[in-house]
Design brief:
The complex is a heterodimer of chains A (119) and B (108).
Chain A: E1 3-7, E2 10-12, E3 18-25, E4 34-40, E5 44-51, E6 58-60, E7 68-73, E8 78-83, E9 92-99, E10 106-109, E11 113-117
Parallel strand pairs in A: 2-11
Antiparallel strand pairs in A: 1-3, 3-8, 4-5, 4-9, 5-6, 7-8, 9-10, 9-11
Chain B: E1 4-7, E2 10-13, E3 19-25, E4 33-38, E5 45-49, E6 53-54, E7 62-67, E8 70-75, E9 84-90, E10 98-99, E11 103-107
Parallel strand pairs in B: 2-11
Antiparallel strand pairs in B: 1-3, 3-8, 4-5, 4-9, 5-6, 7-8, 9-10, 9-11
Classes of the chains: A mainly beta (119), B mainly beta (108).
Chain lengths: 119, 108
């Protein structure tokens, strides 16, 4: 069974940092591109970052560019999101999601991890 | 960036009825349009890919159509478990990958 499990969320002060992890199982992780998508009360579902399987292509949404860093460890079947300079508007549930083979889609999704940025 | 606009924002329908949700792109996206269902407290789930492809395991009551800028998600023979929020998502011109704002469906 294909499964994605996020961890690392929590309460952090504005300006702080957090690292999210996503453990993948049930498929050949290195052959798939991966994404982070968040859900915030104000903006609904928002794609924030993409990383290809092996060739190093990375994209970010403008809202997180320069503050967040996506990475992966194919040997550990793991995806990461390093978040710096966190703001209140970054509060939300963060999901990792596998990309499609031929088109960019999200399937499956993890269960999500809650990030709360507040003093 | 391509903007995705869904209508209506919410709707209510009875068991057995048929409903249609519309998604409009701010420019042509060919057929690069996907639909997701999100039940309360759960992660989104892929229903339809590239406008009309039914994802494996999704009931045939769900169907998608459209191309260019206008797309529809149709749910026939509504069931109680269809109560959820539905999102469209474009993958034609990336980055960024963009979603519609969602349509909340209530089953009476």
């Amino acid at each position: 069974e294909v499964q994605l499990v996020e961890s690392g969320g929590g309460l952090v002060q504005p300006g702080g940092s957090l690292r999210l992890s996503c453990a993948a199982s049930g498929f050949t992780f290195s052959t798939y591109s991966m994404n982070w998508v968040r859900q915030t009360p104000g903006k609904g579902l928002e794609w924030i970052s993409y990383i290809s399987g092996t060739n190093g292509t990375i994209y970010y949404a403008d809202s997180v560019k320069g503050r967040f860093t996506i990475s992966r460890d194919n040997a550990k079947n793991s995806l990461y999101l390093h978040m710096n300079s966190l703001r209140a508007e970054d509060t939300g549930v963060y999901y990792c999601a596998r990309d499609g083979v031929f088109v960019h889609l999200f399937d499956p999704w993890g269960q999500g991890t809650l990030v709360t940025v507040s003093s | 960036d391509i903007q995705m606009t869904q209508s209506p924002s919410s709707l209510s329908a009875s068991i057995g009825e048929r409903v249609t949700i519309t998604c409009r792109a701010s420019q042509s996206i060919n057929s690069y349009l996907n639909w997701y269902q999100q039940r309360p407290g759960k992660a989104p789930k892929l229903l339809i890919y590239t406008a009309s492809g039914l994802q494996s395991g999704v009931p045939s009551r769900f169907s998608g159509s459209g191309s260019g800028t206008d797309f529809t998600l149709t749910i026939s023979n509504l069931q109680p478990e269809d109560s959820a929020t539905y999102y469209c998502q474009q993958s034609y011109d990336v980055p960024p990958i963009t979603f519609g704002q969602g349509t909340r469906l209530e089953i009476k």
